[in-house]
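Supplementary notes for students who missed Thursday's class. We covered one full example, reproduced here. Read the sequence, then the structure, then the short commentary at the end.
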Amino acid sequence: MVLILAVVLDYCYTAIYLHSSKRSKVEQIYNSKNENYDVIILGSSRANNHFVAPLFEQKGLKTFNYGLSGGHLFEASLLLKLMVERHYKIKNVLLEADLNLSNEQRAEGVSARFLPYLHQSKTIRDHFSKEKDFRQLYYIPFYRYIAFDTRIGFRETYKTVLQEPTNSLDHFGYYPLGNKKGNMKNNITNLKPLHNLYYEEIKQICKRNQINLIVVTTPMCSAVTGMDYFEKVIKIHPEIHNYENAVEGDQYFSSCGHLNDTGARLFTKRIIRDLFPLPSSRIGTVQRGKPSMEYK
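Structure (token representation):
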């Protein structure tokens, strides 16, 4: 009886997520196809909170910020794989790769958003196949919904049934932060950038699908110990554009690693000016000249 109940519940929960596209970026991508974008933004919260997608739109570039707060490159790579699987046409991928280069683990809470589709999507199944708990997640009915109840359990499923929207899809995916200060100190001395497996996957996906990949680091506040980390990143990955000091002044930060909305707008304007200087019809080849030092 327990097994039968688990199978029934697994089927019902999965069916609900298979018909939802309003509560998360993962759902939106999974339940869409044939989208066409000039710019797709990928990365962690340092992408989600730093790249103001509406500013790209104002320049005539169809853009969506698919940065995932709390996410790692594990999830960024999988999002891009799903877009390709769903025949998205993408001219440019703007990837934030800095602190997230230091690990190859999945972000438990964020990666859970993919698990409802584990049996339906070979892409997701293959991506998770080397994870230690893959057998439990894949073969035990309803296990994934119990193990990640706070993300895909009863409460989330109930809200999905009601089609209750979240703010994760507002502002073309960009999530603005306010001026209330969080932790304004950080120590990244122990972080070491890797030849990250999932970063390499993203590069290969873009190469195979003729997508122009633009990779950048993003700003941090003044009170950071271990800023030579960014020098190590560029040494290992010289193709990455280093913008860790592109916005100076703690008044532009909500926390040490995250710009507030004002800072994000300054940063995004500079990124557009430096890396997307051409009309949208010609965007596709990043300009690798010396970055402009102007902010306004």
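Commentary. Residues 285-296 have pLDDT under 50 and may be disordered. The longest strand covers residues 89-96. If anything here is unclear, bring it to office hours.
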